Amino acid sequence: MPNSKSAYSFSNKKEKFDTHIIVVWVDNEAGVLARVVGLFSGRGYNIESLAVAQVDEKLKISRITIVTTGTPQVVNQIKLQLKKLVPVHKVADFKREDKAVIFKEMALFKIVGPNNKLEGALKACKKYHPVLLDKTKKSNVIQITALRREIDKMSKDLKKFGLVSVSRTGAVAMTRGADIFK
Amino acid sequence: MSKLYSGAEIVFKCMEDQNVDHIFGYPGGAVLPIYDELQNFKSIKHVLVRHEQGAGHAAEGYARSSGKPGVILVTSGPGATNVVTALTDAYMDSIPLVCISGQVPTHLIGTDAFQECDTTGITRPCTKHNWLVKDINDLASTIHKAFEVATTGRPGPVLVDIPKDIQFQKTKYNRPKKEKKLNGKSHNHFNQNSIDELIELMSKSSKPIFYTGGGVINSGPKASELLRELVYATGFPITSTLQGLGSFPGDDNQFLGMLGMHGTYEANNAMHDCDLMINIGARFDDRITGKIDEFSPKSKKVHIDIDPSSINKNVKVDLAIVGDVKTVLSSTLKSLKQKKSKFLKSNKQKTSKWWEKIQKWRSVRSLDYIGSDETIKPQYAIERLYELTKDKDSYITTEVGQHQMWAAQHYKFNKPNRWMTSGGLGTMGYGLPAAVGVQVAHPKKLVIDIAGEASVLMTIQEMSTAVQYNLPIKIFILNNQYMGMVRQWQELLHDKNYSESYTAALPDFVKLAEAYNCVGIRAKTPEELDDKIIEMLNTDRPVIFDCMVDKVENCFPMIPSGKPHNQMILGPKDQESKKITGKGKSLV
């Protein structure tokens, strides 16, 4: 780099990015999602996917699951910054490789075509226990739950069977075994 | 049945219970019901500013100098957007502010109504938290919660947006319950092991340094006392960030001066070469660290901070102690006395070589400058101002730029809460309204805004506020007709292409003072400077002091961007090995 003319220094460091799944328990109040998402965009963190819904009706707690990538330092900052938000109760962080945690995404596939293609599509999904949500003479809507990369693959593979539309959620996560995250 | 209060009354009831005595604000359509109630609450005095940004900075000055939260009252739309700069400033420098903003009636929200804006949306990233109150029954608890969030943990600004219809509605008012626990966002959970580890590191170190920041000031005057006790008990050298000035006496021999981009040679070199760095309430800001990869490469680093997210954000540390500075220092002192009662004596020899090295750096005299008989050097002006006011327990605010750095370098602070400057955000126009707020909090004290002519014009209208409330603030302008820091960067880094940094057609500041019905004083030569400053100090009214200084003086020493601490540029004396001559030298 030529001599910097800026009041700021530049960094040429390239660090390894890891994928993390961050789970945030928040008060389900107006603007809370904007606070969480705004923190990510404002500080330049990535969001690969996002899933959010209220999980406790009585306490009005929502659970937000965010898939993000970053250096260990950035991921640590994400957690600490999230914990500072007033409506945030707790923050969990899992590495994607973590065997003790289940990650699942859901996808809906719409297939349009002749009967043999529709059946072919259903067969191709077999590994993921597909649910046939809608069926007409010309079309199927299939639901599967699987890992992100598996759904990525299915989205590609189903093209030859007449896939016309994909709708998918962000990942949700839960620990294996009897323990829950405190 | 208990009495019903309107939303507007509840706002003031809450303020009474929060011991608010001054609010800074500006009326408008969406806060008129609140302004209507003002007269019924005699203990709360309203200061009418001339622009909402001024209200925000005045509240900051008030908060910084008094340790109490600053309170702002503004209307919807432009009232709220005008205060955004001040909220961001307070967020960056961790200043507790509570901003009450009016909003259009609830049924009009989202319809692009007159003077409507998404206030909570706009201020979300520049507040610790904000609320839109949609139910009158939530109003009191929300305002009390707002004060709690603003003042606990790492302090900061909050905003409560109140639609006009809520201000009219009535409900019961309940006093806030005294909560035993602070909210979950305040962290003070360090344990004794960390303190023991710190003392272990301290006793092993032969090249230690304390690096202290605004967190010491924010922790209250007691924290500054404890800091002094610890520094004297250890005999270690200490340096401070811009925001930390005053927590340790500026004229003490153990104090190495400010560190960072325009810090002293000895402070920055000591930071670079130390083997133990104890960061107390500072945040490894980029103006402090310089090139981060080469920042203090050989040291063990300890970080004491109330905000867990400050730890390991910019610099990885070896020992983190998350807690309030006051509590941590008090535990450290206690353990030190128990375990190493003769610490100072046993350590003196160990650190003697280190002190020798520091003295060598000191002998470079990096703050020296070339004096002049003809023109007033800006550094000389600050030195004289300091000499003539140092016995007066004065409060100093600044704008942003060269004058700010010269003030930090040459004005020596001995007490906390005496130095109000915009460090994180670097807001030009901060100092004048901040001085208004400081003077409101301390009516009898000397309050000086050390200003630049470019900065001060950004909020000059607040002179009118100072005159209205008989606030005898002194605006001490180092007038070089340039945006000095911009000009300096252009000279040093942009081949002297002085693009748009010269202000042609400046106002006559003496006449401007007269137009505001305050006092204007001008100093043109070093000879007359002292007399003019004394004239200013003897004037019991607001003063604009136009100090005509050298137009092209640069602020040194300086760490150029992308360079580590030990590669500073020193002043012209070093560059051309000239000697300081003339009056400047004889008076240094």
What does this structure look like?
The complex is a heterodimer of chains A (182) and B (588). Chain A contains four helices and nine strands, in the order βαββαββαββαββ. Chain A is α+β, with helices and mostly antiparallel strands and 182 residues long. In chain A, the strands form two sheets. In chain A, strands 5, 6, 7, 8 and 9 form a five-stranded antiparallel β-sheet that branches. In chain A, 24% of the residues are buried. A six-stranded parallel β-sheet of chain B has the order 3-2-4-5-7-6. Chain B has a six-stranded parallel β-sheet with strand order 11-10-9-12-13-14, sandwiched between helices. In chain B, helix 13 links the parallel strand 12 and strand 13. The longest helix of chain B is centred in the first third of the chain and has 16 residues, at 136-151. Chain A binds chain B through residues 4-11, 13, 30-31, 34-35, 38, 42, 73, 76-77, 80-81, 83-86, and chain B through 120-121, 124-125, 128-129, 132, 149, 183, 185, 286, 290-293, 307-309, 311-313, 316, 489, 493-494, 561-563.
Distance between the termini of chain B: 72 Å
Q: Count of helical segments of chain A?
A: 4
Q: Name the helix and strand elements of chain A from N-terminus to C-terminus, one letter apiece.
A: EHEEHEEHEEHEE
> What is the tally of beta strands of chain B?
20
* Structural class determined from secondary elements of chain B: alpha/beta
Calculate the terminal CA-CA distance of chain A, rounded to whole Å. Answer: 47 Å
Mean pLDDT over the full residue set of chain A? 92
The quaternary organization reads as: heterodimer
Q: What level of helicity do the residues of chain B show?
A: 25-40%
Strand content of chain B: 15-25%
Structural class of chain A: alpha+beta
- Biggest interchain interface, per-side counts: A-B, 24 and 28 residues
What is the C-alpha radius of gyration of chain A, as a whole number of Å?
Answer: 20 Å
What's the arrangement of strands in the largest beta sheet of chain B?
3-2-4-5-7-6
